[in-house]
Every structure is written in C-alpha cells, then in structure tokens.
C-alpha cells in the first residue's frame, strides 16, 4: 500500500507545489481567504471530492469529502496570511525601514499557511485516490479552516459540530525540526479591552479621553504582569477605530491581547485580572471600559498513538531532499545564517516540553485526536517575519512541506486500512480527557462577530454559530 500511496502522492505533488506558490502570491488575511478557498475547492472537486463551503457561519470555511462509510480520516487546511508581513528577504538583517511605504506593507504568509494548505490537501487527494482505486470503505475529509491566526476558524467549526465528520485529524506546520509531535503547546485567550470616551479637540481639555484610559491600562498591564501574572505570556497591540491624528481625542481606543500559558486556567485568570485593571484605568481617565472575550483555546492534548504512527510514516517518507544550494539560500534569510536548518529526522514523536505558540486546533485535539508533523526552517529564522514570508514562496520551503505531505498521505492510508488503530487513538484521547478536571465554561469560546468587526471583515449573511458576546467586567 505504501507504494500505491507514494505513486498517488507523486501525481498530486506538482499541483500542490503550484497551489502553494499561487497562495503565496495572493496572500489573504483571516476571514478574507476567498481566493484560497476557490483554488483549493476547485482542486478537490476535480479529484472527486464533494465540497460544502461557508460552513459554521464562516464564508471562507469548507468541508470536502471523498469516499463512503468508515473509518473517516480528516485533514486540516489552513490558508490565512498575516497582516503587514509582505516578503522581505532582508527583514532579519536589522536594516531600519522607516517611512510610510514600509508601514503600508501588505499581508504575507509569514507562518507558511500557503504550504500547509497545499501539503495537507495533497495528502488528502492521494489518500482518497488510493481509497477509490481499492474500493474499500472509508472517507477522507478535508476541513478548510480559515483565520487560524485569529484563533477563530476551528473554534467556530468545533462548536458547530463540523469536525464530527472525522474520527482522527492530521495536519502539518513549519517549525525548527522534522518531526512528529505529541506534546502540548500553550493555551491562548484572545480578548479586546475597549475604552469609550468623549471625542473632541485635544487642544482643549477633554474629560474622558479613551486613549488616556487605554494607555493607563497598557502601562499598568506591563508593570504588573511579571509579578501578578507570572509565566503568562501577555502580548498586545493597540486597535483604534477613530484616532487618526494627535489633535483628535478618539471616541474609542482598544487594546487587543493574546494571553498564553500552558494551563488554560492561568490564561483565564490573567484575563480576569486585566479586566479589573481595565475598569480601574477607565475610571482614572473618566472613560468606560468593556472587555470582550474573542477566543479561548487550550493547547494540544498529546496523543502518543497517532504520534508514533506519524513518526513511522515520516521515517518512510524520508527527510527533505534539500540541495546544498537550497540550504544556503534558506540560511541567507536567517538572522544567524550559521545556525542552519535541521536536515535530519527526529526518531519517534517529540513528547517532552511545551511549545510556546498557540493553535486553534489545540482546542479541537480535546475532542478528536490530532496528529501533527513539523518540517524545519532555519534555526535563526523567526516565523511571523518578512524573511519567513520570503522563504515560504521558495521551492526549498516546499521540500520540507512535501516531506510532511507524503507522511500525512501514508498515515491517512494506514488509518483508513486499520479501524483498530483509529479506535486506539480515540481511546487514548478519552483516557487523557478523563484524567483532567472539569473544563471552565469559557474554554472553546469564540466571538466571530466581534472578531470580524475588530479586523474590519464582513461575514455577510452567513449564520454566526458559536458566537458568544461577553462583557467580562461582571465575571470578575
Ligand atoms: Zn501558523
């Protein structure tokens, strides 16, 4: 079967590489991935998948299914880009880029989601083809999951029950090693602290300046976090709908925060502490505060059973076949070109430690087993940078994604052929969930309407599911 899958995957690979490049050339930020959805669903429909678009109240989410009966193996496709991350090969060189042109830089695939979409879909296409030719029962389901960087797409789809169509899920992501993973990442809470004040001319005294409140909040948050929220990563960015020049006091000022900790309880506790700070900052400035929980996702629940399977499949796929020239090309983009790229394979799944990032499939992994494969980028290349965007448009980057893609195709084939293996993955998940305590009610929450409003996107007439507007000032 391995040989059949390899052949089917090799036939899908040229299209996948082309799709990765096309997505890179037309990057779209979260909740606006219309071109990506068109490209991927057209590819899947052409390969015999039945496509349903606009699921879970998300115009850019889709589900594509091939085959009948069970087992059912799902593949996640991410395709959102990051704002302000246009490709910049010199981004890590430390060169200052002042001026309006630099500030207006467009979105880019600084997290490699163009490669994830192409690699994961190619795996599904190959697995579905082998399934069709064998005549065996089973389904391959591709979940098109938008707005990963906003922690929105998969949370909304999970709440709407969309993932019930699969018994196990497979995905891949760039990182700093070639490996299968069975270890947690951080839980993430996304929230907006909004401040409403009286707009006016700042040359006069304006009582209730929203920007004053936001800045008191930010300064206090930064002052307190080391001692009052130890171990919690607190990241923020100002968001303002009104303020354009210094002589206008804005009617509204907002601070958008991501709060991360391995334990979701600790991230939620930090949210409650900051909600209290927001109220006090607003009172000090004579403004009003609101706190909106935008999303809350736990980190990955490890699954050693599926991790071991993917470790075996990676070994069968073999490490990325980079040429020396490609390794040099990749190193040139890194801040520290000497750090190099891991060209070897980790043996077995990585199970130790906690990854510092958050992912919205982290929350999904508590309901459906999620198997993950990483492929390596240079150690000195930061993800979410213009240099990473530059890398993810190259053939060298595709080689890593291609390794992951073939490994996922092989894993999908083995899961489809062995219902007992699928059952083992699910049994491990059930045992791990049972070992944890009760789940706080805010876990898994997502407020699509507020997120769309925050990032200026129109969800159209799509029915919003899983939407939970929440003013947390009363929640303590
Ligand atoms: Zn990512």
Describe this structure in words.
It is globular, with a radius of gyration of 23 Å. α1 runs antiparallel to α4 and α4 packs parallel to α12 (395-417). It is 40% helix and 17% strand. It has two domains: 2-183 and 301-433, Zn peptidases (Aminopeptidase, 3-Layer(aba) Sandwich), CATH 3.40.630; 187-297 and 438-454, Alpha-Beta Plaits (2-Layer Sandwich). The relative contact order is 0.19. The termini are far apart. The protein has a seven-stranded mixed β-sheet with strand order 1-2-4-3-5-13-6. It has a four-stranded antiparallel β-sheet with strand order 9-11-7-12, sandwiched between helices. It has a two-stranded antiparallel sheet with strand order 8-10. The protein has helices at residues 2-25, 34-46, 100-103, 113-134, 153-159, 210-228, 264-285, 304-317, 324-331, 360-364, 386-391, 395-417, 419-434, 448-454, and strands at residues 50-53, 62-68, 72-77, 138-144, 168-175, 179-181, 187-196, 200-201, 233-239, 248-249, 252-261, 288-297, 370-376. The protein contains 14 helices and 13 strands. β1 (50-53) and β2 form a beta hairpin. The chain has 476 residues and is of the alpha+beta class. It binds zinc ion.
